[in-house]
Amino acid sequence: MQRLRQRAAAMDRSRKKWVAWAVAVAIFVVLMLVTPAIPQNEDYHNFADQRRLFSRIMWIFNPFCFAGIPNTLDVISNIPFFFVGVVGLILCHYKNYFRLNSQGELWSWTLFFVGVTAVAFGSSYYHLNPNDATLVWDRLPMTIAFTSIMAIFIIERVDDRTGTKSLAPLVVAGALSIMYWRFFDDLRLYAVIQFVPCIAIPVMAIVIPPCIHIQPTGCGQLDFTSWLK
């Protein structure tokens, strides 16, 4: 009898998950049908500070270049992402420094810090020559970081297995949102991928208690998400 009750409870939870996903997909489809496309505003590439500094450094690499680094401060401001990402990757795999409890957590944190490290290169590349084509490489690493954080919170607050299974679909969805924007000049999918975690993560942190014994990481993740943006 106890086994029957457990099986019925498991089936009920599974049914609720499918219903929740169906409702979410339906809402998303309706929003896509009733809302207009959001094109990329070209003024986005016009930065307030467009100074070219370090002309001597540029001359070392190219003797014919005396102009300096384009959008210098925007470019060099990405350097901290490289160090944070590399240090995070090392600590993830060094004697379980973060006290991760599952392989899913390890994969999610690893992918998160890979995204952070890649921001240093992608964002620098974009700011050297701001346009829609280079903006892809600025947004893609950030999207990997956002979606990985979402998977981490699902692991910590909902279920380890569910969170681990959601990691790959979330990252793929993030990459597809970038491709959709690039090919159709429509930012709606990207906006969903970017802002849903900003809403869902604080709600999950407040409403749902951790389902595994972990070090509290929510505040650090939210602060870092804000820094990425």
Automatic annotation (TrEMBL):
<keyword id="KW-1133">Transmembrane helix</keyword>
<feature type="transmembrane region" description="Helical">
    <location>
        <begin position="189"/>
        <end position="208"/>
    </location>
</feature>
<dbReference type="InterPro" id="IPR008901">
    <property type="entry name" value="ACER"/>
</dbReference>
<dbReference type="GO" id="GO:0016020">
    <property type="term" value="C:membrane"/>
</dbReference>
<protein>
    <recommendedName>
        <fullName>Ceramidase</fullName>
    </recommendedName>
</protein>
<dbReference type="GO" id="GO:0016811">
    <property type="term" value="F:hydrolase activity, acting on carbon-nitrogen (but not peptide) bonds, in linear amides"/>
</dbReference>
<feature type="transmembrane region" description="Helical">
    <location>
        <begin position="106"/>
        <end position="127"/>
    </location>
</feature>
<keyword id="KW-0378">Hydrolase</keyword>
<feature type="transmembrane region" description="Helical">
    <location>
        <begin position="75"/>
        <end position="94"/>
    </location>
</feature>
<feature type="transmembrane region" description="Helical">
    <location>
        <begin position="139"/>
        <end position="155"/>
    </location>
</feature>
<comment type="similarity">
    <text>Belongs to the alkaline ceramidase family.</text>
</comment>
<keyword id="KW-0472">Membrane</keyword>
<dbReference type="Pfam" id="PF05875">
    <property type="entry name" value="Ceramidase"/>
</dbReference>
<feature type="transmembrane region" description="Helical">
    <location>
        <begin position="167"/>
        <end position="183"/>
    </location>
</feature>
<keyword id="KW-0812">Transmembrane</keyword>
<dbReference type="GO" id="GO:0006672">
    <property type="term" value="P:ceramide metabolic process"/>
</dbReference>
<feature type="transmembrane region" description="Helical">
    <location>
        <begin position="20"/>
        <end position="38"/>
    </location>
</feature>
